[in-house]
Amino acid sequence: MSAGAQKIQRIYLTLTLGNTVAASFIWGINTLFLLDAGLSNLEAFAANAFFTVGMVLFEVPTGVVADSWGRRVSFLLGTVTLAVSTYFYYLLWQLSAPFWWWALVSVLLGLGFTFFSGAVEAWLVDALRFEGYEGGMEAVLGRGVMVSGVAMLVGSVAGGVIAQVTNLGVPFLIRVGVLLAMFLVAFRLMHDVGFTPERSARPLRAVRTVLAASIENGLQNPPVRYVMLAGPFSAGVGIYVFYALQPYLLELFGDPRAYSVAGLAAAVVAGAEVLGGWLAPRIRRLVRKRTTVLIISVGLAAVILVVLGFTRVFWAALALLTLWAVVDAAGVPVRQAYLNDMIASKQRATVLSFDSLIGSSGGVVVQPLLGRAADAYGYAASLAIGGVIQLIAVPFLIASRRQGSPADSANAPSGKAEL
Do residues 306 and 388 touch, judged by C-beta distance below 8 A? Predict the structure, then answer.
């Protein structure tokens, strides 16, 4: 890796670190925060579903911003939008606002995150290629997952402890401050390299053009299509599981106000992400096909959820949560590398955003469905049901493998069998 590529990697890791620290201050307590505001389980997970509705609605338009106005502009808009909407969340909690206000602000939170999805990853890949980096992306993206895990570890533990010492609203205010600081960092360090935005098209026409390109390079490309179609089942369940584990573990622990335990749950996931990100490129050196890693990762994670649903011992549940998070995290850089090697640079941010859109659409349905299951049958049963739903993703990944895309074996270790 050249000096220029190393600089790009450092900036990427810095942005990942700051953004994840900001976001993770509330990840360990978000569900508890919503329940404390007076929402039921169904309403709390429905609010999360409206967050994913926002991601579905705005993924393509913000992808157009990234591809037409630049990935830097998209990132800066994301920090401001997320800071403002997070502050609105804090105000709703103070006012014990009715559900539909939570739904509206959750949509705005989704808008904030869509400015990041696709844009940062596209910026990284194009800039590295411009600087002459020709190696596999698993190593760089794996480091990103590791840094994200460390940041999440710090942020989620701090958020849980701060909430217990003060109240559930303070971590939200801290998040606002860190996001505004990240705006200044990105404004100083992040510049589009290896990519020239095209600003000539009118906005609505640009949306239609980019949406058509997303479909052509995404859903109409068979190996990409099947990976995308697996997303609603794996991503939708993953979002629910992360937030359901907070009240589930508190229930097993026996103290509904032990917010630091909820932060610990998020911290365990964060530590597992670090390990999973470290494992991803090493697993890839042992396996020729990327889809092999994806199929095993998704299938094993689903089985762990089913087992977790029958666990009634706190420490056993925490151990299974750790294993689930490691398995899930190890597949993330491999999936990202597989998709990026099948997408042209010109539409990279938009197609990646479109992939996120499809994954988020699963969360719109899965979260309230499993939230209702939690109300009716308990959190444990809802986790087991989630594991069954996630297994539906496996046939789609097998279908992608059967297409024989060169990206499946790109940067593969020499001398390995077709596994």
Answer: yes
Q: How far is it, in rounded angstroms, from Cα 371 to Cα 46?
A: 8
Task: Tell me how long the chain is.
Answer: 419
Quote the pLDDT of residue 285.
82
Quote the CA–CA distance of 349 and 66 in Å, as a whole number. Answer: 6
Distance CA 411, CA 107 (A): 39
Distances (CA, A) of 131 to 74, 189, 194, 260: 22, 16, 8, 44
Closest C-alpha to 119, from 187, 180, 65, 71: 71
Per-residue pLDDT of 298-351, as tens digits, reads 999 999 999 988 888 888 988 898 899 889 888 888 888 888 888 776 667 667
Q: Are 368 and 49 in contact (CB under 8 A)?
A: yes
Apex CA 67: angle with CA 61 and CA 72, to 5°?
100
Return the amino acid letter for 256.
P
Give the predicted TM-score (pTM) of the model: 0.69
Q: What per-residue confidence (pLDDT) applies to 171?
A: 94
Using DSSP's 3-state secondary structure scheme, residue 17 falls into helix
Residue 36 has pLDDT above 60, yes or no: yes
Phi, psi of 116, rounded to the nearest 5 degrees: -85, -40
Half-sphere exposure of 63 (CA within 13 A, CB side): 30
Q: State how far Cα 163 lies from the chain centre.
A: 24
- Nearest of 148, 108, 179, 100 to residue 325 by alpha carbon: 148
Give the model confidence (pLDDT) of 370-402 as tens digits: 888 988 888 889 999 999 999 999 999 999 999
- 3-class SS at 313? coil
Return the number of other C-beta atoms located less than 10 Å from residue 246's C-beta.
Answer: 25
Determine the Cα–Cα distance for residues 211 and 60; give it in Å rounded to an integer.
7
> Could you tell me the two tokens for 301?
């994670």
Whole-number Cα distances in Å, 372 to 46, 208, 324, 329, 413: 9, 36, 23, 27, 46
Residue entry with tokens 């979002």: 239
* pLDDT tens-digit series, residues 253-272: 887 677 667 667 767 777 77
Q: What is the pLDDT of residue 41?
A: 78
Q: Are 407 and 342 in contact (CB under 8 A)?
A: yes
CB-CB contact of 397 with 226 (8 Å): yes
